[in-house]
């Protein structure tokens, strides 16, 4: 009908958490807010992860991201509805050979299915890498993660973020599914 406003698109061209140049490069982006995990988020986080990952996480596992000095979890929320759209969690681990060196370990990353391919995963991963790097008491040399060898989308995503396949761990998941260990040598500073 003439003069009638077009329906609001799901993806809006505004992303306050990344530099302007990145906004201009993107054609489809979500308006998101990123904050740190706190106890009141526990149930929502557990629910989100069970909807978006094939593994289940106990409360005590998740609470380490609040209580442990070396662990961090970031939550991306839709700017207007406040719904969780993505979660990333990781920690830094000291090198056994040299205590002056740390490695970032990306332990959890998931984006809500309807929000994928909007840059949310990339922003979360880069923010976490940056946080681990700035909060570690030693130099963070590399960042690594485990991913199922069958998860082609995630492998492509991590390769796109600068991670390379280092080795394959047989039966890493429940003794049945192999994991690829992927590593990156230059962490993001955003
Ligand atoms: C992997 C995952 C976190 C990626 O999040 P995302 O927000 O969709 O990723 P982004 O939009 O930031 O993608 C960045 C780039 O990664 C690559 N990429 C992401 N998803 C991809 C896919 N399904 N196929 C191919 N490439 C992909 C693309 O190069 C993409 O850039 P482009 O969209 O400009 O081409 C998301 O797919 C997910 O939550 N999957 C289910 C849970 C999971 O497997 N987690 C990882 C466990 S280790």
TrEMBL record:
It comes from the Eukaryota. InterPro entries: Acyl_CoA_acyltransferase, Ard1-like, GNAT_dom. The keyword Chloroplast does not apply. Residues 32-187 form the N-acetyltransferase domain. The keyword DNA-binding does not apply. PROSITE patterns: GNAT. Gene3D superfamilies: 3.40.630.30. Keywords: Acyltransferase, Transferase. SUPFAM superfamilies: Acyl-CoA N-acyltransferases (Nat). Belongs to the acetyltransferase family. ARD1 subfamily. This is Ribosomal protein-alanine acetyltransferase RimI-like protein.
